[in-house]
TrEMBL record:
Transmembrane segments: none annotated. It comes from Candidatus Magnetaquiglobus chichijimensis. This is Aminopeptidase N. The keyword Zinc applies. Pfam families: DUF3458 (PF11940), DUF3458_C (PF17432), Peptidase_M1 (PF01433), Peptidase_M1_N (PF17900). Residues 561-883 form the Peptidase M1 alanyl aminopeptidase C-terminal domain. Gene3D superfamilies: 2.60.40.1840, 3.30.2010.30, Neutral Protease Domain 2, Peptidase M1, alanyl aminopeptidase, C-terminal domain, tricorn interacting facor f3 domain.
Length: 883
C-alpha cells in the first residue's frame, strides 16, 4: 500500500482560526539559486475562536527556516516546534509581531505551486495552499490580512517587479539590483497573494469606471508577444463594463494587471489586482490562434475579472465553500458570454460540457456534492462539479426567483458580506431574504451528489381534452452524501401544436384560461407529481426541460418520430438542438449494442431529418453547426451499459459516412455559402460561418471516396491566412489518415516550431487521430524538441489529448493506453502531482466499460495506487476509484 498520509479534512470539523493576521510585510530577495523571504506579521488572538489558545500554529511546507523572532527577540530551537507541515509556537501573547525568514528554491519547483520559475520569470500560484510553500503562515482563506510586499532582484534580468495593489516606491540598489514596494489596501487571504518578476513588456489601456474613476489596465507578456495582447485587453474592457451594467459592480484599485506565463497548472488565477494567466488564455493573433482560442480568452478574462467581486471582495470561509466563488463566477461568465454573444449557442455549449464531463464525474467513484463534506487533497476538488454544476445551481435560483429578484439577492449578498469570508449559506440566505422564499429544500443541491433522473410520462384524453404529465424524480444515493432525497427541480415546459408548431396556452386544472402562459416553470419537489393541462384537444408535442432548466437526466416520453419532429420544430433553441442529440444517441447506442451480430444500418428517417436540419432557413450558421453535431464518444460511453468505445466509434463513423455520402451536394453548397472572404475578423457572425464551413469539410471527408473534399481541405490549409481555417482543413485530413496529411503536418511543424502555443495544436491534432498507429506516434512525439514533459500545456496537448480526448485509442481493448498512462504517472507524479492526478482521472470510470477494458483499467489503477511515494493528489483519485 501507499506510504502517503491519508489524512482527511472534514467540513464538520471546521473551527475559526485561533489567530488573525492584521498586517504582513514580505521582503522577497529573488535569486536563481536561492530566494530569501522575510516576513513581518502582526498577529492577535481571534476573539471569536472557541477557545482562548495561546499556542500559534502556522502552515509551512518545504521551507528552510532561517530565523524567527517574536516581538523582536530571536527564538532558539527550544522556542518552537517544526514538522513537515507546521511551525508551532507553544505560547504567544494576545498581540505580537512575528518575523520569520525562510529560504526557498523556486528554480527546482516543478509543482508550479508556491513560488516557481517559468522560463525567465519568477511567478507564484498560491490557490489553494501554495502560500505555505513561500513562508510560514495561517494559510486558510478566513485569515485576511493587509499585505505590503517589497521585491528585490537583479535589474537586468528582472526589470519588472509586480505584486498586488498599488506601486508605492521603486528604485535602484547596489550590485545591479533594484526593488519595488507594493501595497494592497484590501485585506485578503493568502491564496490571493501574487508576485511576478522578469523581463516583460506591457500592453496597456485606460478605463474609466461608471462612477468616473480612472483605472490603468495592463497586460504583461514576454517582449516577443507584445503584438498578441489586443484581444485580451479588449476582452477585459468588455468584462468590466458588463459587470457594471449587469451587476452594478465596479473595479476598486487604480490598476488591473494580467501576466501571461508559459508554465501554469490551470487556466488562470484571480490574484487581487494581479491576475496570472496561462499564456494560452492571453495571447492571440489570427496566424496562431483559432476562433475558439479567441472565445476562450474572452471568457477566461471575464471569469477572473468577475472574481474580483465573487471571490476576492467576498471570499470563502474554507475550501469546502469553493463553489461559493467558482460556481457563482462560472455562472457570471456564462451570462457574460450569453449577453455579448449568442445566448442559445452559449447555453448549448455549456450543457454539452456539463454532460461530457460533469455527468460522468457525478456518476462515478469520485462523485461529490457541489459542497463536498471531506477531502484528502483540496487541489482535487477544483472539479467540474464544483464549477459547472455549481453554476447550474445558481442558474436554477435565477430561474426560480426571476431576474429581478435574483439581482436583488445578489445586491444584498454584496452589501452584507463585502470584505468577509463566508459560506454557501450566506449566499442562499441573501437570496432567501430578497425573495421571501424558503430555500431550505433547494439547498439540498449543495449537499447531495449524483445527477437526478427525471422520467416523464404523458397521457392524452381526447374526450376530456386533458393532457396528463407525470414527472418522477430519482436521486441515487452517493457515497459520502445524503442518499436519494428529492430535490427542487425547475422544469421549464411548453406544449406545441403538432401542425402549426405554435405553443398552446398552459392551463392547469383549477386555473382560469385567461392570460394562460405559453411557457411555464413547474417546480417539481416530490418524487412523483402529476400535472393536468386543460383545453388540449389533440396530443401536442411536449417541450420539456426547456433551456435545460435543471442539471438532470431526462428520460423523455418522446418517440423517435417526435424527436425528429422537435429537431425541426421546437421553438426553444436548446430543446430543438437536444431533440437531435437524443435521437442520434438512441440510434448510435442501439447500433453499438447490436454489434457485431447485426451490422449497423443508418435509418433513412434519420438521414431525412438531418437533411432537413441542414437546409433549415431559420438556423444561423453557429446554431446549424451545433444542431448537426453528433454526440461525442464520451457522452455515448455514458449512455451505453458495458460500454464499448470501439463499437460506438464504428457506428458513429458509419453514420457520418452515410450522411456525407447522401447529403454531399448540400454539404458542398453550404461550404460555398459560408466562405468569409477578406481579412480574418473575430465576430460572432464570422466565427459562425467559419465553424459551419469547416464542419462541412470535416463531414465531407468522412466519405473515404470523396477525393474532391480532400483536395479542398488541403488547398484551404495552404491558402488560409488564419489558424482556424488551417486547422479546419488539417484536422479531418489527419484524422482520416489521408495521404496529404503528412506533408501539411511537416509544413506546420516547420513554420511554428518556435511558437509553443501553435505547436500545442500540432501535437494535439496528431494525438487525437483515431488511427491504429496513434499511440506509437504520441510516444515518438514525446521526444520532439518542442515537447517538454514538465510543461502542463505540452502535457495537455499531447498525452492529455491522447488519454482524455482520444477515447477510441486510449480505450484500445489491448490495454495499451492504460499502460501508457501508468508509466506517465510514474514519471510525472513526483514532480507535478496536480497534473498527474488529473490524468489519473482518465481511469476512474472503469466500471462503465465492457469486461475486458474494465479489468485492464482496474489493473492500471491497482498499479498506480501502489506506486512508491505516490502523491496525496493521485492517491486520492486512484484509491477512490477502487472503493
Ligand atoms: N481560482 C482559479 C479560477 O478558477 C483556479 C485556479 C488557478 C487553480 N490556479 C489554480 C486551482 C491552481 C487549483 C490550482 O479562476
Ligand atoms: Zn474561478
Amino acid at each position: 500500500m501507499s506510504d502517503k498520509p491519508k489524512e482527511i479534512t472534514r467540513l464538520a470539523d471546521y473551527t475559526p482560526p485561533a489567530h488573525l493576521v492584521e498586517t504582513i510585510h514580505l521582503d522577497v530577495h529573488l535569486d536563481e539559486t536561492e530566494t530569501l523571504v522575510a516576513s513581518r506579521m502582526t498577529l492577535r488572538r481571534n476573539p471569536d475562536a472557541p477557545t482562548n489558545q495561546r499556542a500559534v500554529r502556522l502552515d509551512g511546507r518545504e521551507l528552510e527556516l532561517v530565523e524567527i523572532r517574536l516581538d523582536g527577540a530571536p527564538l532558539s530551537t527550544a522556542g518552537y516546534t517544526l514538522d513537515s507541515e507546521h511551525l508551532t509556537l507553544p505560547d504567544a501573547p494576545e498581540r505580537f509581531t512575528l518575523e520569520i525568514t525562510t529560504r526557498i528554491h523556486p528554480e527546482t519547483n516543478l509543482s508550479l505551486e508556491g513560488l516557481y520559475r517559468s522560463r525567465g520569470l519568477f511567478c507564484t500560484q498560491c490557490e489553494a495552499e501554495g502560500f505555505r510553500k513561500i513562508t510560514f503562515y495561517p494559510d486558510r482563506p478566513d485569515v485576511m490580512a493587509r499585505f505590503t510586499v517589497r521585491l528585490e532582484a537583479e535589474r537586468v534580468r528582472y526589470p519588472v517587479l509586480l505584486s498586488n495593489g498599488n506601486l508605492i516606491e521603486s528604485g535602484a540598489l547596489e550590485n545591479g539590483r533594484h526593488f519595488a514596494l507594493w501595497e494592497d489596501p484590501h485585506p485578503k487571504p493568502a491564496y490571493l497573494f501574487a508576485l511576478v518578476a522578469g523581463n516583460l513588456s506591457c500592453h496597456e489601456g485606460p478605463f474609466t469606471t461608471a462612477s468616473g474613476r480612472p483605472v490603468t489596465l495592463q497586460i504583461w507578456v514576454e517582449p516577443e508577444n507584445a503584438e498578441r495582447c489586443a484581444h485580451a485587453l479588449a476582452s477585459l474592457e468588455k468584462s468590466m463594463r458588463w459587470d457594471e451594467e449587469r451587476f452594478g459592480r465596479e473595479y476598486d484599485l487604480d490598476r488591473y494587471m494580467i501576466v501571461a506565463v508559459n508554465d501554469f497548472n490551470s487556466g488562470a488565477m484571480e490574484n487581487k489586482g494581479l491576475n496570472i494567466f496561462n499564456a494560452v488564455y492571453v495571447l492571440a493573433d489570427p496566424e496562431t490562434a483559432t476562433d475558439s482560442n479567441y472565445e476562450d480568452i474572452e471568457s477566461v478574462i471575464a471569469h477572473e475579472y468577475f472574481h474580483n467581486w465573487t471571490g476576492n471582495r467576498i471570499t470563502c470561509r474554507d475550501w469546502f465553500q469553493l463553489s461559493l466563488k467558482e460556481g457563482l463566477t462560472i455562472f457570471r461568465d456564462q451570462e457574460f458570454s450569453a449577453d455579448v454573444g449568442s445566448r442559445p449557442v452559449e447555453r448549448i455549449r455549456d450543457v454539452q460540457s456539463l454532460r461530457a464531463f460533469q455527468f460522468p464525474e457525478d456518476a462515478g467513484p469520485t462523485a461529490h456534492p457541489v459542497r463536498p463534506d471531506s477531502y484528502m487533497e483540496i487541489n482535487n476538488f477544483y472539479t467540474t462539479t464544483v464549477y459547472n454544476k455549481g453554476a447550474e445551481v445558481v442558474r436554477m435560483l435565477l430561474t426560480l426567483l426571476g431576474k429581478e429578484t435574483f439581482r436583488r439577492g445578489m445586491d444584498l449578498y454584496f452589501a452584507r458580506h463585502d470584505g468577509q469570508a463566508v459560506t454557501v449559506e450566506a449566499f442562499l440566505d441573501a437570496m432567501q431574504t430578497a425573495s421571501g422564499q424558503d430555500l431550505g429544500p433547494f439547498s439540498r443541491w449543495y449537499r447531495q451528489a449524483g445527477t437526478p433522473e427525471l422520467t416523464i410520462r404523458q397521457q392524452h384524453d381526447p374526450d376530456a381534452e386533458v393532457l396528463e404529465i407525470t414527472v418522477m424524480q430519482q436521486c441515487r444515493a452517493h457515497g459520502q452524501s445524503e442518499a436519494g432525497e428529492p430535490l427542487v427541480i425547475p422544469l421549464a415546459m411548453a406544449l406545441l401544436d403538432r401542425d402549426t408548431r405554435a405553443p398552446l396556452p398552459l392551463i392547469l386544472e383549477g386555473e382560469s384560461p385567461e392570460n394562460a402562459p405559453l411557457e411555464r416553470v413547474l417546480e417539481v419537489t416530490r418524487p412523483v407529481v402529476t400535472y393536468r393541462f386543460k383545453n388540449i384537444p389533440r396530443p401536442p408535442l411536449a417541450s420539456l426541460l426547456r433551456g435545460f432548466s435543471a442539471p438532470v437526466k431526462l428520460n423523455s416520453p418522446l418517440s423517435n418520430d417526435d424527436l425528429a419532429l422537435a429537431w425541426g420544430a421546437d421553438n426553444d433553441p436548446f430543446n430543438r438542438w437536444d431533440a437531435g442529440q437524443q435521437l442520434a444517441m438512441r440510434i448510435l447506442v442501439e447500433g453499438a449494442r447490436a454489434l457485431p451480430d447485426h451490422p449497423f444500418a443508418t435509418p433513412d428517417s434519420f438521414v431525412a431529418a438531418f437533411a432537413a436540419t441542414l437546409t433549415s432557413p431559420d438556423l444561423d450558421p453557429a446554431m446549424k453547426s451545433l444542431a448537426i453535431t453528433l454526440p461525442g464518444i464520451g457522452v455515448l460511453i455514458e449512455a451505453m451499459p458495458e460500454a464499448d468505445p470501439g463499437a460506438l466509434f464504428t457506428v458513429r463513423e458509419s453514420l457520418r459516412r452515410r450522411l456525407a455520402h447522401d447529403c454531399r451536394d448540400t454539404l458542398l453548397a453550404l461550404h460555398a455559402a459560408n466562405l468569409t472572404p477578406g481579412p480574418y475578423r473575430v465576430s460572432g457572425e464570422a466565427i459562425g460561418k467559419r465553424t459551419l464551413k469547416n464542419f462541412m469539410l470535416g463531414l465531407l471527408l468522412a466519405d473515404p471516396d470523396n477525393d474532391l473534399a480532400a483536395r479542398m481541405a488541403a488547398d484551404q490549409v495552404r491558402q488560409a491566412d488564419n489558424m482556424t481555417d488551417r486547422m479546419g482543413g488539417l484536422v479531418p485530413l489527419v484524422h482520416t489518415g489521408r495521404p496529404e496529411a503528412e506533408e501539411l503536418l511537416a509544413a506546420m511543424e516547420h513554420r511554428w516550431r518556435d511558437n509553443p502555443l501553435a505547436m500545442d495544436k500540432w501535437f494535439s491534432i496528431q494525438a487525437m487521430a483515431p488511427l491504429p498507429d496513434t499511440l506509437a506516434r504520441v510516444q515518438r512525439l514525446m521526444s520532439h524538441p518542442a515537447y517538454n514533459p514538465r510543461n502542463p500545456n505540452r502535457i495537455r496537448a499531447l498525452v492529455g489529448t491522447y488519454c482524455r480526448g482520444n477515447l477510441v485509442c486510449f480505450h484500445d481493448p489491448s490495454g495499451s493506453g492504460y499502460r501508457f498512462l501508468t508509466e506517465l504517472i510514474r514519471d510525472l507524479d513526483p514532480h507535478n502531482p496536480q497534473i498527474a492526478a488529473n490524468l489519473v482521472g482518465a481511469l476512474t470510470r472503469w466500471r462503465q466499460f465492457e469486461p475486458r477494458r474494465r479489468e485492464a483499467m482496474r489493473q492500471a489503477i491497482d498499479t498506480i495506487v501502489t506506486l512508491p511515494g505516490l502523491s496525496r493528489n493521485s492517491y486520492e483519485i486512484a484509491s477512490k476509484s477502487l472503493a
